[in-house]
Write a structure and sequence with these properties.
It is a single chain. The chain is of the alpha+beta class. 25% of the residues are buried. The chain has a 4-stranded antiparallel β-sheet with strand order 1-2-4-3.
Amino acid sequence: MKKTIKVFMYLFLATILLVITSPVMGIPLINNIVAWRMESELKNIPVPKETKQIQHKSIVGKLNGNGNGMDYLATLVVESKQSLEELQAYYKSHKQGVAIMNQKSDRFNGNPLEHGELVYQKLRDQTEFSNYYTIYFYRSAKSGSILESDIRGH
C-alpha cells in the first residue's frame, strides 16, 4: 500500500511540474514547429530551371510593429538566372502568400523583419548578389491564441 501511495505521489508531482513548465517550454516548441513547417513548405517547392537553393532559415517572435504578438518568417535563398518577375510568377503559382525580393547581403533585409536578424552563413563570403533572391513566407498567430503566450512575442 505504501508503495502505491509513493508512486501516486511521484505522478502527482510530475504532473504539477509539467503544468508549471508547459507554458515555458511547450508553447515555444510548438511555435518553432510552426516555423519549421513553413520553412519546409518553401524548400519543398520545386525550383524553376536555372535556379538552385542556397540556404533556408526561419525565425519566430515579435518580428515587426509594436505590442504583443507571435510572428513567423520562413525564408529560402536561391541563386537564379531568371529575373525577379519570372521567379515571382513561378513561386506565386505554387504557393499563396509567398513574396520574393532581391538579396543584397548575407542578411535578410526585408519588410516583415524589423526586430530580429537572419544571417545566411552560406552567403558570408559572397560579394556579388545580383543573381540571389530570397523567397519568404510570413504570417502571424491568431490574436488571442495560446501561441501568443510565448515570451518571444512580447
